[in-house]
Specification:
Layout (H helix, E strand, L loop, with lengths): L2 H24 L22 H4 L3 H5 L14 H20 L3 H23 L4 H20 L6 H30 L6 H14 L4 H23 L7 H15 L5
Helix pairs in contact: 1-4, 1-5, 4-5, 5-6, 5-10, 6-8, 7-8, 8-10, 9-10
Bound molecules: zinc ion.
Zinc ion binds next to loops.
C-alpha cells in the first residue's frame, strides 16, 4: 500500500468533491462556476477557509451556516463523499496514471450531472461539453504517450463510434417516444450518448446499451414506487453504465 499516493488521491478527491457541489448549485442557476468564491446560499456571506474544508466543515457546524445559522443541505457533503469514494475506486483500478487522472477528473462532472438530472430532469450543456472536452483531451493524451501514431488514427474510430451512438440513441428516442406517446429520451440524453462514443469506443457499445437499459428499468421502478412524478430522468442510468464500463475496460495503455 502506497500511503503518500493514497493521501494524494484523498486530497484530490475532496477538491473534486467540493468542485462538484459548486457545479450542482451554480450550473442550473446560470452562475459562473469557474472563478467565483463560494458563498452561503442564505446570507450570501463569502465562505472563508474553515467553511471550505469539505465534509468536515458541514459536520462541525452541525449542518448549518456559521454566520446565519440556516441549515445547509446534507446533499453537499454527500456529493463530496461520493466523489471522494469514486476517485478512490478509480485509483484501485488505475493507480496514479494519466488515464486514472482523466477518470478522476470526470467524476465531479458525472456526479453533478447525476444530481442535477434527478433534481431538475436536465443534463446541462455546459457539463456535457466539459465531459466532451475532457474525453478529447484524453484521446490527445493517448497519442502523446505513443500508444497511437497520430491523433487522427485514434480520433477517427472514436468519432465514428460517437456518431454511431448518436444515431442509435436518436432511433431509440423515436421508437420509445412513439410507443409511449410522449417524449421519452431527452436531447440531453442523446448528447450524452454521443459523448460516450469518445470515451468508450464502439466495441463496448452493446454492453453499454444493456447496462444502461437494465439500470434504467430498475431506476424507473424505484421512481414509480418512491417519487411518483410522471417525468423520470434517464441520465443517471447512462452515467452509471459509462462509469462502470470505463472501470471494467481497465487501462488502455499498458
Ligand atoms: Zn449563511
Amino acid at each position: 500500500m502506497n500511503v503518500p499516493e493514497i493521501l494524494a488521491v484523498i486530497f484530490l478527491g475532496l477538491v473534486f468533491g467540493s468542485f462538484s457541489t459548486a457545479l450542482v448549485y451554480r450550473v442550473p442557476r446560470k452562475q459562473n462556476w469557474v472563478a467565483k468564491r463560494s458563498a452561503c446560499t442564505s446570507c450570501k456571506t463569502k465562505l472563508s477557509f474553515p467553511d471550505l474544508i469539505p465534509v468536515f466543515s458541514w459536520v462541525f457546524s452541525g449542518g448549518r451556516c456559521r454566520h446565519c445559522g440556516q441549515p445547509v443541505s446534507w446533499l453537499y457533503p454527500a456529493i463530496e463523499i461520493l466523489v471522494l469514494v469514486l476517485c478512490l475506486v478509480v485509483y484501485r483500478f488505475f493507480g496514479v496514471t494519466g488515464e486514472g487522472l482523466f477518470l478522476m477528473a470526470l467524476t465531479p462532472l458525472l456526479s453533478a450531472l447525476t444530481v442535477i438530472d434527478f433534481q431538475r430532469m436536465i443534463l446541462p450543456d455546459q457539463l456535457l461539453f466539459s465531459c466532451f472536452i475532457l474525453g478529447i483531451a484524453r484521446l490527445g493524451y493517448f497519442t502523446f504517450t505513443g500508444q497511437f501514431h497520430t491523433f487522427s488514427d485514434l480520433f477517427m474510430p472514436y468519432l465514428l463510434a460517437a456518431v454511431f451512438y448518436l444515431i442509435l440513441s436518436l432511433a431509440l428516442r423515436y421508437i420509445v417516444s412513439t410507443a409511449l406517446g410522449k417524449e421519452a429520451l431527452g436531447m440531453g440524453d442523446v448528447k450524452f450518448f454521443f459523448i460516450t462514443g469518445f470515451w468508450l469506443g464502439v466495441q463496448w457499445m452493446p454492453i453499454f446499451f444493456i447496462i444502461a437499459g437494465i439500470s434504467g428499468v430498475c431506476m424507473r421502478i424505484f421512481w414509480r414506487i418512491f417519487v411518483k412524478t410522471p417525468e423520470f430522468p434517464f441520465g443517471p442510468a447512462l452515467i452509471l453504465a459509462l462509469f462502470s464500463l470505463l472501470l471494467l475496460q481497465g487501462p488502455i495503455l499498458k
